[in-house]
Amino acid sequence: MAEKKTTGKVTHNITHVESTTNSKEELLAVTRKNATPYRIAAVILWILGLVCEVFAILFFTIKIDWSVLYEEPGYTIAWIAALVLDLIFVVIGSILWKKANHMDPASKKNPTKFWIQNNLGIIIAAIAFIPFIIFALTDKNASKKNKTIAAIAAAVALVIGILFGIDWNPVSQEEMLESAGLDNKVYWTASGTVYHAFVDCGHLHNSTDLFDGSTTAAIENGKTRMCKSCEKRLEKEQQSPTDSKVAEDQPVEVESAQ
Ligand SMILES: [Zn+2]
């Protein structure tokens, strides 16, 4: 079944994949189905993050006094640990959410909705850390030093959360459907998030097992965007008609080695 193809030092086992959908509606149903587990996981992680924030607030304001168990620094350890867990959940949630958006992109027809869906992690990060900062700074029992430490720690977590919440390369449903209509052959890996126009792309050097098929087949398998390197190379090849004209005019050396 699998075809073997050698590029440079690597021999790839390439399995051909046929597209299974016949319309845009069918394709969108498949991408939605692919993304759903990631969306659910992201929402669960975000909720866990917010639960950790509530605990961080309760520990910091000594509504729950963990120092009973651990004597003094217990109280500090408790709220810091809750805040760190909060950040971990929020960041992993945002990564999964962005992955879901790449598998099942939002439509650009509604720019506000498009932005919110692609950057929901920013809003979650704000909800996950700003209330803690407010509670910490307005706490009557905490010392000034502890308030400052708590506010700085949460502000750093907020910035990290926001950076992970931003999607720097969002994909739109329109772009995805446009490329689904193209009839060219592309390559992808099981774990990757993009498809490649060239089998000798540098990003595929470490992958022996590849799949090939139409862009529609790639999208059905969760790869909704072309790899940036392949995109640039493709543009270069298409945008240099002068080069190919020169090449046509010059005598061509035919390589007979096979
Ligand atoms: Zn590539």
Summed up, what is this model?
The protein is an alpha/beta fold and 258 residues long.
Q: What's the order of the H and E elements?
A: EEHHHHHHHEEEHEHH
Q: What would you report as the Rg, rounded to the nearest angstrom?
A: 25 Å
Present as ligands are: zinc ion
Q: Pick out the low-confidence regions.
A: 244-258
In spatial order, strands of the major sheet run: 1-2-5-3
Helical proportion?
55-70%
Shape: elongated
Q: Could you tell me the number of beta strands? A: 6
Amino-to-carboxy terminus distance: 24 Å
Largest sheet: 4 strands, mixed
Number of helices: 10
Q: Report mean pLDDT, rounded to a whole number.
A: 89
Percent range for β-strand residues: 5-15%
What structural category arises from helix and sheet content? alpha/beta
Topology:
Elements: E1 3-7, E2 10-16, H1 24-60, H2 67-70, H3 74-103, H4 111-118, H5 120-138, H6 144-165, H7 173-180, E3 185-188, E4 194-195, E5 209-214, H8 215-220, E6 225-226, H9 228-238, H10 241-249
Parallel strand pairs: 2-5, 4-6
Antiparallel strand pairs: 1-2, 3-5
Helix pairs in contact: 1-3, 1-5, 3-5, 3-6, 5-6
Question: Which labels suit this protein?
Answer:
258 residues; alpha/beta; 4-stranded mixed β-sheet; 60% helix; disordered C terminus; binds zinc ion
